[in-house]
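We close this part of the discussion by returning to an individual protein. The sequence in question and its structure tokens are set out directly beneath this paragraph:
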Amino acid sequence: MQIDAPGKPLRRVACDLPPPQASEILLEVLACGVCRTDLHVLDGEIPATYPIIPGHEIVGRVRAMGAAVQGVAIGQRVGVPWLGKTCGVCPYCASGHENLCDHPQFTGATRNGGYATHALADAQYCFAIPDRFSDVEAAPLLCAGLIGWRALHLAGPGNRIGLYGFGSAAHILAQVARAQGREVYAFTREGDLAGQTFARSLGCVWAGPSGAPAPELLDAALIFAPAGELVPLALKAVRKGGRVVCAGIHMSDIPSFPYADLWEERHILSVANLTRQDGSSFFETIDRLPIRIVTEQFPLEQANLALERLRLGALMGTAVLIPRAA
């Protein structure tokens, strides 16, 4: 399924993939999660190369590999995330901040992704997936889970965590934070009673609309919805020295707000991509936790429907595409 240009719906295309290059692996796609970033690519809101096959929450099985690939076996199941490759030589890569690489490649945006039956990926940027997760369950972990994990790290060790936008990432992260002994407060769209009930079912101590004050001041607020107007609301919800972490790759403009809301050493931070170390630590941690991944499955041919459901906020958990071949 390919996006020909920004604003155009996905369409089916047939293409022959070239043999994998030296460090690449050829994957049979078993499942691919549908992420809000895919909508940003579809809408032309973030840099991308068109035409492009979107999808960066890929679970696949290795069917062929390049001559330089090591540590991966034919038939192994692996996951492919958003960060598809880095240059390895820029100041950010050299200092351990490859998520800020000056010349990165992004799966499903600047290199073809997983809305397909097969995909090519650089083996060095793929992850082994714990056996306890099915193909469908594992797909959301590769972006929603990973970005949530990095956002939680930036939030610091505080006990009271607010999650704004209770979708794919937040429903995973809420359970991780609860397993760490934290209190989680969920903020949803106005009137989304089903989403609030869903949040409480996953262990959140409170759930309500984004405009409502939390019953307690938060140590940190993590924003997953691409809505800039949530930033001033989150600032009002955090304590002195608290942190507001913007976890999306794209967000609408942040409206002006009084300096007093930022004063007292409150912080606003953003999450930019992830490092391979983030992925390794996340999968090592989540393999030990009783996490329930909530998904809704769609055949690959219904990718446009899945994206529209996501746009409307009509999903619980994560939409996952299943290629017919799988």
User: Anything to note?
Assistant: The chain has a mean pLDDT of 94.
